[in-house]
Automatic annotation (TrEMBL):
Cited Pfam families: Peptidase_U4
Official protein name in the record: Sigma-E processing peptidase SpoIIGA
Alphabetized InterPro entries for the sequence: SpoIIGA (IPR005081)
Entry's Gene Ontology molecular function annotations: aspartic-type endopeptidase activity
Active site (record annotation): 186
Superkingdom assignment: Bacteria
Alphabetical GO biological process terms: asexual sporulation; proteolysis
Amino acid sequence: MTVYVDLVFLSNLTIDASILMTTAKVRHLRPRRRRLALSASVGAAYAAAMFVTSVPYLYSFGVKLMISALMVFLAFGYGGPLKFVRTIGSFYLVNFATLGAVIGISSLAKWSGSPWRGIAFTAEGGGMVLSFDVQAILLAATLAMAIWLYRSEAESRESRKRLETLVVDVSIRIGDREWTCRGLVDTGNRLYDPLTRIPVMILEASLWRDELPKGWADRLKSESADRLIGELEETEGGLPSFRDRYRLVPYRAAGGNAKLMLAIKPDSVTIADPAGNEEPCVQRRVLVGLDGGALSAEGAYRAIVHADLTLASVEVPASSTQTA
């Protein structure tokens, strides 16, 4: 059998890069391309080394594990022992799945005979060698996978960048205390208090779990805000400075049902410019509505910022649709 080391290196480079990108997808990691390229090159060089050198124990279990750990480290970094072990585990799971795909492709590529035809092992048992036609098919498949993973990652990165331009730092001040979180500027949020025409931003109630009366942060998920206000005198806990700041804001949910939202009147809300090019915008005519759930499944933000609050001066329209 004639073995072309350059083809072995190229095919393993492409396969290793695809495996590393798949591992990154599984672990929700975003490694740099040059780190992926370096890690894949180490794996490809290790696979090709069996044909150009003969070193005892080079392909033992311990050395293979060390090479795998080195590849994972070069691609994704360390990040702590638990994270590193989990990343190595994901890397091996993707490897096993890829090996099954290799055998399946080689079997489909043959019209007849054993599925192991076209697959051979080195004399020392150090690695697997594929015939040229199977290598070509595998190389084309892994190239297609690599392109697809790269494009999907690029699109995901662009989506994250667009989202980051809408996520701002929000500081809420009540008395001498201040709370800071990340907020998403929502141009579709047109919620105002119907009496004062003050814009209403939305905040996760869990952020004020210790400041609200006992159990309110959890009860807001399933109970109406007016019922909580009705029990205010009998409820223990919560900051005394919040007692005179509670409001009930009517709004219309997506299903068309009219509901009441528990809101708090802060002293001020400061919204930072995400680009850092302008001074933070300070608003005092604002209400903070409380939501009992999580506004972002990934935890990227904990508030929904009214679009008017990002302006230097809030101009409230004469009539607006109140939605949340």
